[in-house]
């Protein structure tokens, strides 16, 4: 089978597309012929070695995959069934989606939701699934469209683009934050009503500011997350899912103890099954698939390594799906 393999030696991390032996597939009771994978920020880190995402070498990266069951020892999954996997450490600790075959425990699988194609499920992928988890967390915290605008950071990226699409379809007013002024037209087409520059949020700010946001989806972290909390309305809900701007959180407790702001951490990797199924069902209902297509670019397995190397410099927007069978 063809696949991308990341190896580590004394000179560092090296990724290569090559023929792999099926015998090397990891343990698991379901083998899947992978048709589509996707490209996420974490895959860039894994392939370039910019952060130590991979926990055992050699590794097939790719934190998402969708395909057809090739063989199964799990009664819940039959040969020929369409399935997907996101998270659970695939592409990090267990071989992932950038190879023609994958083998995983049946507990990690999600049957392809009715209403989605395999390709659409990967256009959503971990990024879109995470955006949905953020929306659901705001809803659990009592946020409704009537309460005011929702701020979405890293708006031009995968999580941000899907979050804007979901929130606007659900009737929220969305303010998008982007470092790319040229993305304004794209973000407004997805449903943002205003686009704010990244620099408005990225510098150290005051413990409290004007109450602006009913909720937020933040993929950036650091000062951006601190500033968002400081300008969130009384009882508002901020969801933190990323670290594109840094891992630190240089904030004060003022928004939490004076305005009852809730900060919710979002993890897509180990998200438990009931919430996982609910999120996929909600994505079918609440995401405009035509809009999803406009935010989706397609590459081949052969392009994966180059795409990872150019990620920071390229003008990519939204989501990238990887055609694995060519
Ligand atoms: P993308 O690379 O697709 O998008 C990230 C976006 O963030 C960019 O497009 C850019 O948007 C913005 N950005 C990039 N660098 C910076 C910076 N230095 N400061 C501020 N903004 C920046 O990544 P994803 O959408 O896939 O992931 C976004 C983040 O969410 C990552 O940190 C990722 O690790 C995390 N994540 C977490 C998950 C979880 O389970 N918690 C799951 C999925 C992702 P623009 O140009 O519009 O400003």
Brief overview:
The protein contains 9 helices and 15 strands. It has helices at residues 41-48, 118-140, 158-169, 184-190, 222-230, 254-259, 273-286, 289-294, 304-310, and strands at 2-9, 12-19, 30-39, 64-72, 82-86, 101-104, 110-111, 150-152, 174-178, 194-197, 213-218, 232-240, 262-265, 296-300, 319-323.
Q: What does it look like?
A:
This protein is an alpha/beta fold. Helices cover 28% and strands 27% of the residues. The chain has nine helices and 15 strands. It has helices spanning 41-48, 118-140, 158-169, 184-190, 222-230, 254-259, 273-286, 289-294, 304-310, and strands at 2-9, 12-19, 30-39, 64-72, 82-86, 101-104, 110-111, 150-152, 174-178, 194-197, 213-218, 232-240, 262-265, 296-300, 319-323. The strands form three sheets. Strands 3, 4, 5, 6, 7, 14 and 15 form a seven-stranded mixed beta sheet that branches. A six-stranded parallel beta sheet has the order 10-9-8-11-12-13, sandwiched between helices. Helix 1 (41-48) packs across helix 9, helix 2 (118-140) packs across helix 3 and helix 2 crosses helix 7 (273-286). The model has no long low-confidence stretch (mean pLDDT 97). Residues 40-42, 126-127, 130, 154-160, 178-180, 183, 198, 219-220, 241-245, 266-269 line the site of NADPH dihydro-nicotinamide-adenine-dinucleotide phosphate.
């Amino acid at each position: 089978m063809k696949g991308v393999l990341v190896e580590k030696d004394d000179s560092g991390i090296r990724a290569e597309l090559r023929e792999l032996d099926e015998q090397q597939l990891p343990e698991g009771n379901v083998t899947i012929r992978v048709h589509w994978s996707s490209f996420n920020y974490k895959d860039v880190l894994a392939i370039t070695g910019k952060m130590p995402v991979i926990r055992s070498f050699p590794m097939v990266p790719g934190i998402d995959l969708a395909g057809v069951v090739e063989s199964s020892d799990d009664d819940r999954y039959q040969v020929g069934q369409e399935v997907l996997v996101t998270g659970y450490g695939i592409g990090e600790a267990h071989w992932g989606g950038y190879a023609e075959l994958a083998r995983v425990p049946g507990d990690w699988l999600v049957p392809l939701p009715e209403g989605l194609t395999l390709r659409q499920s990967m256009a959503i992928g971990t990024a879109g699934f995470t955006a949905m988890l953020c929306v659901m967390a705001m809803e659990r915290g009592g946020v409704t469209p009537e309460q005011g605008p929702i701020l979405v950071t890293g708006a031009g990226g995968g999580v941000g683009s899907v979050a804007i699409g979901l929130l606007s379809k659900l009737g929220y007013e969305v303010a998008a934050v982007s470092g790319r002024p040229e993305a304004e037209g794209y973000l407004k087409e997805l449903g943002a009503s205003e686009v704010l520059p990244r620099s408005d949020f990225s510098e150290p700010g005051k413990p409290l500011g004007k109450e602006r946001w009913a909720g937020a989806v933040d993929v950036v972290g650091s000062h951006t997350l601190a500033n968002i909390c400081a300008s969130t309305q009384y009882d508002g809900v901020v969801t933190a899912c990323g670290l594109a701007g840094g891992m630190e959180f240089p904030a004060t407790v003022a928004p939490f103890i004076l305005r009852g702001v809730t900060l919710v951490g979002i993890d897509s990797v180990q998200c438990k099954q009931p919430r996982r199924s609910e999120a996929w069902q909600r994505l079918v209902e609440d995401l405009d698939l035509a809009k999803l297509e406009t935010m989706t670019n397609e590459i081949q397995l052969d392009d994966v390594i180059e795409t990872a190397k150019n990620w920071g410099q390229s003008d990519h927007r939204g989501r990238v799906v990887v055609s694995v069978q060519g």
